[in-house]
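Students often ask why we bother predicting the structure of a whole assembly rather than each chain alone. The short answer is interfaces. A chain on its own may look different once its partners are present, and contacts between molecules only exist in the joint model. In this exercise we take two input lines together and write out one structure for the complete complex. Read the inputs first and try to guess which parts will touch.
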Amino acid sequence: MKADVSVRSRDEIAAAIRALSDAQWIRLRKASGYFAWVYDLSGEDLLQEAFCRALAGSRQCPTHVDIVKFLKDAMRSIANGEGEKAENQIDTISVEECDAAAGGGLQLKDSTDSQEEIMVAAEVNEATRQAVLGLFPNDAQTRDLADGILAGYEGEELRALTDLDKTGYASKRRFMRRTFDKHSSEGKKP
Amino acid sequence: MTGPDKKGREALARLADVLIEDLLAAPDEEILAEFVEERGDPVKNAEDMRALFEKSILKSNKDRLRAARAGLEADQASPATAKLINIANVRTKLKRALASCPPEVKLTLAARNESELSDADVLGMLQDLEELGIVVSDDDSGN
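Now the answer. The structure tokens for the assembled complex follow.
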């Protein structure tokens, strides 16, 4: 059974956003940048859409949830939805092409990924992974950390992978984030 | 598609989640100092972001107005179908119909004194007579 949750009104959401500190605005901006990088979108558009959905009430914000975290989750959901849309896009053909296909003049493509497409996607994924790891050319532990995250490792498992103590692990995570931030502040993608 | 596929994006999204987790956990002073080093003035950044938010409010207000207008137009396009009925007139009409209808119909309708019937019974009975073609409905008769 779901417990009752009190949610922020439109005015309360607006007031909470207007009251954000300089540091919180930086967090929001950077979060939008990370998602924009992953899903190949505009960070500004993503943030604006998250604002609009929060104000429209299509995403409800419980009063106990931090507003920055709420907006971050909204951006992730919006970006993920855009990614899914792109993934599920069906190839369309014009009427002329349809006639040509009926007459045997056009080869219609199967909607499922061909072997070649799967191979190309695997190559692109690997190139992206190498680009990410390439950000840390002289640091094997940070490379292992990033690689472990990409592979789906979490928590203690991830720390064990890097063979670091808690302090060293926290320091490597910070170094990884800072490297990404510096890289993206120069307008580059990994 | 030239970017990573779903599997590749999911891997990158995991990385983004970790980066954001650390970003949210880092102390404000650290976040501010890093920003100064990387991009510039945090106050100017906050101003730019607030302006973006105000733009979003305007857009959201316009969307709400559009939705309200669309709702209003939809309401106007389909006016309420309920109509007011004078039950006294209906009772009179039923009494007249029962008095003039054939005996077999009277039996079918279990002739009771019209004054004992509820308003709902009166309306229902009249509707039955209309369906049997014994009484012409107001809509059909143009009244």
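Check your guess against this: Helices of chain B lie at 6-25, 28-38, 42-77, 87-100, 103-108, 119-132, 138-141.
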